[in-house]
Amino acid sequence: MPLDVALQGRTYDEMPFVVEPERVRAFADAVSHRTGGVPPTFVTVAEHAAGVASVIADTELGLDFARVVHGEQEYEWHRSMRAGETLRVATTIESIRGRGAMEFLTLRTDLRDVDGALVATARSTLIVRGAS
Amino acid sequence: MTLRFEELAVGQAIPVSSRAVTREDVRAYADASGDRNPLHLDDEVARAAGFPGIIAHGMFTMGHLVSTLVDWVGDPDALRRIRVQFRAPVFVGETIVAGGTVRQLDPSDRTVVLDVWVSVERDGETEWPIRRSEAELRL
Fold it and tell me: What is the complex's ipTM, to 2 decimals?
């Protein structure tokens, strides 16, 4: 079933995300980050834990994760994340577009610190294959 | 050591960096990132989707690209923005190569725009898991 374009603009509840030092170490090893600090693409962990989890759990959207491939990814960093800090993560469905048997779902996830200042923005475009 | 803006020239290539991709690497990335899409963990699901077996996360490949950039610059805080297109899958057992070229230099705010890419050799052809992509740094 195609994704409902009426859900464009939907923003999921903001969720807290702790930048756990152990998780940072495991992630740094996985991407061979060698310069210390939190790897820049650690943003993706918050994006998944908070944002994408909400999107997958959204029964109205009905996204079948097994049919999803990653089409595009964008990050904008305002400052580096700090191990141990808590971020507030909110994801919005920016757009839903269809092209033939494929649909393109673009999600924007904002990571803010406890003072509300923007730390990073992630934008993911997911390709849903074989939708009819 | 951090790269200096004055050392850079338009057209300059950054040092390429290659990495073999193992099944364990993909699993470690799935565990660390929380992205447990079965395409990255279950051969049967991946085959049903038309791949020969599990594929690496696009973000694993992007992570290698970003680590390559950060190694070159020497300072992760210099990275301002990156936008990548995932254009081909990466299979386990393959070696990904990340690189880039300086496209634009702006001395007024010391920003550097790079064209960035990741390639893989497959059956005698060069495939581009990441191409037509760009990164912006401020030095």
Answer: 0.91
